[in-house]
Write a structure and sequence with these properties.
Length: 240
């Protein structure tokens, strides 16, 4: 039995990964789905990337989690990279990136998205420091394999995201390619949240150095459209 810790992406929270977690639990594993600082009800939306990373490392230490498989979806890739850099192999035995951002030292999430995305986010940031993904982008680019009904019902569960976590540069002692930990990259093949000219794989996955590639059908939001398949593939990505 392994211990998995699933880290959500932007606009999400841990509760939205529970169906995926249940699919992994059904295979006999222990699974945690924490919510990062900035995405909890009532959280300040002015927090930055280091604070989000620290909320994850604190959770791992407080729960006395060791040798876990740390899975990050999308923005969660930034957070799991920073968490491993702080905690090391005693706490984390493998990093799994699920269509996730892979930062080198000094990079921000906004450094890895198209310039028009940055312009959009800059134009819609709210006074409280948050950004909300517009529904048309959610429907066509993030959850393109869902019915309109599912797209609308899941969108209603999202929460405004602290924009500073996108603009902050990450502080790392090593690039991911030099980190001594097992690494996997999980690719949802219908994911067009990033354009074809700036794909998740291999553009971001190759920054891991040596890694395991796992693929599956589905959009960026396979956690909603096919959580059981995603859970199975996370197990494939996390196995020894």
């Amino acid at each position: 039995m392994d211990t998995y810790l699933l880290v959500h992406g932007a606009w999400h929270n841990g509760e939205l990964l529970e169906e995926v977690a249940d699919a992994i639990r059904d295979d006999g594993h222990k699974v945690y789905t924490p919510t990062l600082l900035g995405n909890k009800n009532g959280d300040l939306k002015t927090i930055g990337l280091s604070e989000a990373i620290n909320s994850l490392t604190s959770f791992i230490q407080e729960e006395e989690i060791t040798s876990c498989i740390l899975v990050g979806h999308s923005y969660g890739g930034m957070v799991i990279t920073g968490a491993f850099d702080k905690l090391g192999n005693e706490y984390i035995k493998r990093l799994v990136y699920c269509n996730a951002f892979v930062p080198n030292p000094g990079e921000s999430l906004n450094d890895m998205v198209p310039p028009n995305f940055v312009s959009l986010f800059d134009s819609i940031v709210k006074d409280d420091g948050s950004v909300m993904l517009p529904f048309p982008i959610w429907r066509e680019a993030f959850i393109n394999d869902a019915s309109l009904e599912l797209a609308e019902s899941t969108y209603a569960k999202l929460n405004p995201h602290p924009y500073k976590t996108f603009t902050d540069s990450i502080e790392l002692s090593l690039p991911p390619s030099e980190m001594s930990v097992g690494k996997s990259y999980l690719v949802c093949q219908e994911d067009i949240a990033m354009p074809a000219s700036l794909p998740w794989h291999p553009r971001l996955s190759e920054k891991l150095g040596l890694y395991r590639l796992v693929t599956l059908a589905g959009s960026h939001e396979t956690c909603f459209t096919n959580p059981k398949l995603l859970g199975k593939k996370i197990i494939d990505a996390g196995r020894d």
